[in-house]
Amino acid sequence: MTNSGKSEKVFCLHCGRRFAEELRFCPDDNNELVPIATEALIGKLFAEKYLIESVLGKGGMSTVYKAKQTYMERIVALKLLHPQLVSDPTSVQRFSQEAKAAASLSHPNIITVYDFGITSTGEAYLVMDYLVGSSLSAILDMSGPIPEAEALDIFRQICRGLVHAHNKGIVHRDLKPANLVLTADDDGSVLVRIVDFGIAKILPSDGAASQGLTKTGDIFGSPLYMSPEQWTASKLDYRSDVYSLGCVMYEILTGMPPFAGDTPMDTMNLHLNEQAPPFRETNPHVKISKELEQVVLTCLEKKVNHRYQTVSEVLHALPETGAAPTSSQTGTVIVKLNQMVESSQQKGSRGIVDALSTSKQKTVVDSRRPRAIRKLIKESRTKVGVVLSVAFIAVMLFQFFYPGPIEDPGSPAAKTYWQLLMTFSNWATESGNYGFSEKLMTTALNDLDQNLGGFSRKFETMKSLNNIYMREGKIKEQEALQNRMYDLYKDDYERRGKRLIELLTEADKYIKELESQGESLRTHMSDRRLNWSGSGSKIIAVARSLEEVYSFELEYKLLDLAERVMTKLYGVRFHGLAPIKLERADFLMLLDRIDEIKARRLYEDAFAISGYCAKHKKMELHDDLDYIRALLRLGQWQRDYGSPDDAGKTLDTAIKLAEKNKEVSKFELANFYISYSNHLEQVGKKAEAAAINKKALEIGHTPDYAAILKEREREKEDDKD
Questions:
Q1: Domain for residue 575, yes or no?
Q2: Tens digit of pLDDT for each residue in 142-168?
Q3: What is d(CA 624, CA 629) in angstroms, rounded to the nearest whole number?
Q4: Cα dist from 99 to 96, 116, 200, 316, whole Å
Q5: 663 domain residue, yes or no
Q6: For the sheet containing 180-184, what is the strand order?
Q7: Residue 219 and residue 282 share a domain
Q8: Which tens digits make up the pLDDT trace of 606-634?
Q9: How far apart are CA 721 and CA 715, in angstroms?
Q10: Cα angle at 555 between 554 and 557, to 5 degrees?
């Protein structure tokens, strides 16, 4: 349907309607409208080999086209970075990272990337499989929960794809139903493909510093499926994908994500503070085995060490079979999964389009719920509004009579004004009035700058405004705001670092005064200035935060003062010194200050302290995990910068102790093997190295380090040339 007599400017990918007005969303189905200008490439030859046939989808960073590769007569999906982003180095780098990450993967359960590059005219592109099928999110919207027997097959395929990606050192970081595409083969089987590595993180090997584009402090992902460490902008590893996988499995089995708040902030609080409800509470109609439920809930543990440590462990823990119900929860005959996928292929479902377009603007605010849940929420909005109104009266009274702690600055009136602006802005956002919501949020942010301040409020306000910019498609404003959010993080980290340095400097000065007066430090240990025995973990956390925002000078000063003060106060054998020394050594390694590490004997001292403490605690060495880890780090240091003979003995001992320690996970034990394998490779014992490397690979948790070592050798040869 068209608007006669007017120039058409936008069209809807879902219903096909065209509009002359400058609309953002289709009035019929509320899907985002796409400028008709994107059709200009249809029928043209791109990069001299791809004939563009149609538009598949459009996202915040790119447009996806259906194209034919002329030389091979192959239908492909061609993804082009938006022209306005090509001039932005960060956007191009992220697009390139997606291409490199995806192109390095070759697995039946991961989308295949055939080609990528930048044309002579500056157009960045990515060529991948053209998948005819449906996203898992579309299947869930159609069917609701998927029976356990068929869900297990989906889980295994997802796990196998993730294991392959992790073995290549790649963390997906945005695993969700919309990024899982289902296609039906001729034999009736369903193939699951993982798509969209646009925000994937490439992990370094063997403890090196990450060279990824995204830094700690950057928050990417989809709120319904983000791990707690993603929400807190902490360092990520493969276990973050384990958590997101748990969210996906939970939704597949119950029809509802484990955590779904009314706003992204509510969702964040649930992910950080609440345990996932049992399946029977979320959906009493589904019947899931206790064994499978336990697997999912283990994936959803808040603390990374309490989850499965690798996706391989999840795969092995999945039950062999599951009961397949004969009817749905409403009593009707259930439709088999492959029949739904085949139906979506025949109808040309656009579920795959949503997955391929991979709009960051759309994924970050993804608040999709099953249709029945959405209806329930819609019906209860009036009640929620009444409850919130009463709640805010209580909040206003509380804030006027209780001013709050010192670290929560601002007058009660200013706090109440900010809270009201946030509330009305959220209501405006929920009703789709993004322009009004943006004005309210901008006012709130300006008021914070002038009258209130406070890191938490500023960050919450910026996140909400960022959410609005995403929905409006205001890319430049969004990127400018994200830079402000990064600066806010940096200022907060540096403030904490400077405060610790100030306190440590005060302690150091006081120690010197006591020493000059001939006073014993032990008689003054109760003084607050000298109370540092339990501060090691806090100091390390702040040091790592400073490293993430590149405040190297502050980090150096902090670790130097911490080591000096703790040594004076508690002696060279103090157990809290070992982690401080290891952290300082790793930091100096990042700065390539090898001579300073050698001069200070940081790795050797950390190991010696751990050994002394283990003996003092009268523990068997294989029971002391700190000692074993310190031994491994010493062996790695000796391997790279010391004596090969010493490294061999140290690493061999570390492996034997780790094998006896029940707390060492298979994933961590594999790293012990790999470190020793690297040493054997260096000293020319290639057969022994291969055997150890195979042993690591057999427990199924490590990348193919043999291939990585070969790649390193090739890089060395290239450097010589």
A1: no
A2: 778 888 988 999 999 999 999 998 888
A3: 9
A4: 5, 6, 10, 30
A5: no
A6: 134-135, 180-184, 190-194
A7: yes
A8: 888 888 877 776 667 767 778 888 888 88
A9: 10
A10: 65
Phi, psi values for residue 141, rounded to 5°: -65, -35
Q: Output the pTM of the full model.
A: 0.47
Last residue of a domain, one of 317, 342, 377: 377
Identify the segments of the chain with pLDDT beneath 70.
1-25, 27-40, 58-61, 82-102, 186, 198-221, 233, 263-265, 322-414, 450-454, 617-619, 622, 699-721
For 697, the 3-state DSSP assignment is helix
Residue 97's domain comprises 42-129
Query: In this structure, what token pair is assigned to residue 120?
Result: 């002579």
Residue of 174, 354, 586, 626 marked catalytic: 174
**Residue 185's CATH number:** 1.10.510.10
- 354 catalytic? Reply is no
Instruction: Check: CB of residue 75 under 8 Å from CB of residue 130.
Output: yes
Among the listed residues 375, 443, 447, the one whose alpha carbon sits nearest the alpha carbon of residue 411: 447
Q: Is residue 660 part of a domain?
A: no
How far from 503 is each of 129, 365, 507, 533, CA to CA, in Å? 58, 41, 6, 14
- The domain total for the chain is 3
Q: In angstroms, rounded to a whole number, what is the distance separating the alpha carbons of residues 652 and 670?
A: 13
What is the chain's length?
721
**Residue 434 has what pLDDT?**
80
Same domain, 110 and 194: no
Of 110, 129, 148, the position where a domain reaches its end is 129
